[in-house]
């Protein structure tokens, strides 16, 4: 027997050696000498001391050190960072969190000094709202660990004889302040607590929901507090929370969600994984069993662990799934917090998957120098931030302790070098804002001293070199030490039956495998190139970052589309971005898209963290009011410049910037000195505008919103963002007005003839002040509007309603207004409205202003252009009260831009700017002229301008015709699912005939009378041809399909309609008028005059006098040809009218025969599509009138 055992031992030893040798061939086992290990241990100690001394010398008693500013961060003294700041409570967080690290490193003298400081300075009687979870693990855990180690050292090192449990008293005080948070329906604690007043004044929106980890990571600290003080209330509350969470699991999968409602227990977020929001719950299930000895926690952990390994674990990766659909991933990225999982697996005893996941994380870390906060399944950066987290080092330490493999010492060395190279700064260690750029963040969280440097030091330290026997302690999630002897201290904790669910625990669950028989190298070897094989390292050349992005820049939107990012413009003007990896043009584009999205998330967080920033006010006396009426408009602040607080105010007269957006050099800079500058939103960053007006000498600035209809009453107040520079070089205040408030200010400026004095200051709520613009909605009206909007959304069908019951169907032109862009300049307002043909620009003005002065060259083209501008301005100011507008197609405006810019020697780069910039240029050009009564008629214009305006008119008509065809196409689609009425179909067909005829007529007319060398117009005509052809094909196919559906027994009647319709289009091409047109070399002028008198005069003209000589174009003799064109158009319309009526009469006669036959066969006249009665003649008359109406509609 002994011989057998000996032989078996030799075989096992040989197999082990063989496995070791095989692994060594591809992945040689590392061995670190004692000297190197000792040197790294001392370097880790020095790193801790560098950070600790920086905090004590420059920040204490603040909560945290700001390593770049080299000062302390107090709650409320720095700009609010949102949820991040809920960790701070002005209670010397970093020092309390670091107490036990001082003992681990053996600096007992400093530990004693630190305890005295905490006892002297720390108090919790503060009116501050903090995170219950963070305050528990950092403050309560730090106090308890400090107390335990103080008594430990009293007994074993004979130091600190003066200590009498002062830290425990502070911990007890803090524990009692936690208790109101547990007063919920379920027993799950609120996420926030006011240290002084409990749940008083804690906003409901930040407390009613909590994360699973937040509610389930209280048990270690609260149970330790109960067992050290003898007061069971703390453990009882935390235990109930754990019991309720266990009941909230998905019973079919044993998975947990990540966020739930504290009152109902309903899951708010059902993502299930092991990372953010849920991580330490699993950790505390296992560690509660280890510390307290209660097997129910072990049973629960084992159930959860099996579920995680079944559903969440995908090889070495851990991907979130839906807790109720565990085979469906809810995310395509992993977060850095899951790096704790391999360490927990070591405690569980499952070493192999721990080695695999750790190796995957190590490769990610090697690739990016740190593990980014989130990374995708292809190991690209999803969120590049790295706050010097300890979780990866924690797992490295546990794996080394379990295996003794020096490979993990090498991992620790790599982490240490990265910290020294990329995070060390003169005043401590700074978080890395983005691992791709290694830019620093002015933050050093308390866990850097509490955990990161602690685990780094322990990794290189031999157990015999430590003052403590760490086998007697367990680490909390914050790295604090709690003694295992606490299990022997019992408390009288009441437990209800439903709280103690019986979970079977196998005997094997209480034991761990012998890790000495494992060779991690053989496990790691297949994974060693896992990250690099997916994507090799490469530098990403950025074309656009989030700070540069402008939502109204077409080039930027094109770049986002290439990256796979979709933009959605919300009702309040905000832009929502959605990134889809598969939509990107290339993998490189998709990676840049991920970078862009993460940057945008960080910017969004910064903006959302400005909620505590108080709004500003713009105040002025309304002109011509007696007694004087003071108007106060609610304004948004800025993250830069002078912040107006208290009674600080800035008063001055207002002046508009020129250009209006203040994004380029200011032409009226001399007029801004000592004034408050008014500028429009858009085209560049807010802070760039502020710098320009400041340089011009302005004392303040007001930015006007470019989102139509926005208001402070309906849109959230936000702070205008800066550019992220550490030094703010803007020293003047700048505020933001939404468009409703801006319109009130503009009206007041107009009434005051531009001489208005305003005051910028802090916003105070007063009962006797008008806090909003007079046009703002009351609360009751806003509620009514919201209800109306809701009902409209709910009652509006998703598809267009069938038109089967509409017998009066006459298509109405509608532009697609899916996307609007508003541009302001001085008193002008331009609205860019998109449609399938590039859209149009509508320009209006609320008042006539004094024109801006601008030098212009006295050239022929400039004279022509000035007259054109006067003509446009006449249209804009025709009737301000009725809000008349100038409507111009976008491509025509661009044509004017190219014409003038080229004449002014503009280079090719200037010609390629965005449409929005061209519209802004157009407004600037119009702002220098006023209405000119001397050019109210066409014959008062220069000949070249007549030609341009007529060409503009004809091209616009062509666009409208194609858009009409789109409307007809839509109508055919809406009735595709039903049997259409014959009259409806006929109306659609004959309407489209008119549109197609006019389009073909004008398409062949234009090249014969105009110079079509303009590249923009040529490209647009090509676009029109493509769209026109597509719509004609759709219409033909749709018509045939619908006619097939509407027939009952006989098909010939409807076939005839289609045949006639198609013949119309073919025959129209043979019209003599087109042949006549092509022979002409002249042009037209007054086609846009559509009044009846002019049309009467047309008929009386003698066309024989029309000139055919090219010289006539130069002399401007085009009058006769104008009348010829109009007459030929009218002839074509009349011919079309007569043919359509004649055909419709024939159709009625044919349908009468069809109806008679059907009536004879079935006796049921209700089945006839076109039921002919004695009223057929009246139908014909009605049709005549409708066709006449449509002809007039098309002509006009």
Automatic annotation (TrEMBL):
<feature type="active site">
    <location>
        <position position="391"/>
    </location>
</feature>
<dbReference type="GO" id="GO:1904380">
    <property type="term" value="P:endoplasmic reticulum mannose trimming"/>
</dbReference>
<dbReference type="InterPro" id="IPR036026">
    <property type="entry name" value="Seven-hairpin_glycosidases"/>
</dbReference>
<dbReference type="InterPro" id="IPR003137">
    <property type="entry name" value="PA_domain"/>
</dbReference>
<feature type="active site" description="Proton donor">
    <location>
        <position position="134"/>
    </location>
</feature>
<keyword id="KW-0256">Endoplasmic reticulum</keyword>
<dbReference type="InterPro" id="IPR001382">
    <property type="entry name" value="Glyco_hydro_47"/>
</dbReference>
<protein>
    <recommendedName>
        <fullName>alpha-1,2-Mannosidase</fullName>
        <ecNumber>3.2.1.-</ecNumber>
    </recommendedName>
</protein>
<dbReference type="Pfam" id="PF02225">
    <property type="entry name" value="PA"/>
</dbReference>
<dbReference type="GO" id="GO:0005509">
    <property type="term" value="F:calcium ion binding"/>
</dbReference>
<keyword id="KW-0325">Glycoprotein</keyword>
<dbReference type="InterPro" id="IPR037322">
    <property type="entry name" value="EDEM3_PA"/>
</dbReference>
<feature type="domain" description="PA">
    <location>
        <begin position="650"/>
        <end position="742"/>
    </location>
</feature>
<keyword id="KW-0326">Glycosidase</keyword>
<keyword id="KW-0479">Metal-binding</keyword>
<dbReference type="GO" id="GO:0005975">
    <property type="term" value="P:carbohydrate metabolic process"/>
</dbReference>
<keyword id="KW-0106">Calcium</keyword>
<dbReference type="InterPro" id="IPR046450">
    <property type="entry name" value="PA_dom_sf"/>
</dbReference>
<feature type="binding site">
    <location>
        <position position="477"/>
    </location>
    <ligand>
        <name>Ca(2+)</name>
    </ligand>
</feature>
<feature type="active site">
    <location>
        <position position="279"/>
    </location>
</feature>
<dbReference type="Pfam" id="PF01532">
    <property type="entry name" value="Glyco_hydro_47"/>
</dbReference>
<feature type="signal peptide">
    <location>
        <begin position="1"/>
        <end position="19"/>
    </location>
</feature>
<keyword id="KW-0378">Hydrolase</keyword>
<comment type="similarity">
    <text>Belongs to the glycosyl hydrolase 47 family.</text>
</comment>
<dbReference type="InterPro" id="IPR044674">
    <property type="entry name" value="EDEM1/2/3"/>
</dbReference>
<dbReference type="GO" id="GO:0004571">
    <property type="term" value="F:mannosyl-oligosaccharide 1,2-alpha-mannosidase activity"/>
</dbReference>
<keyword id="KW-0732">Signal</keyword>
<dbReference type="InterPro" id="IPR012341">
    <property type="entry name" value="6hp_glycosidase-like_sf"/>
</dbReference>
<feature type="active site" description="Proton donor">
    <location>
        <position position="373"/>
    </location>
</feature>
<dbReference type="GO" id="GO:0044322">
    <property type="term" value="C:endoplasmic reticulum quality control compartment"/>
</dbReference>
<dbReference type="GO" id="GO:0016020">
    <property type="term" value="C:membrane"/>
</dbReference>
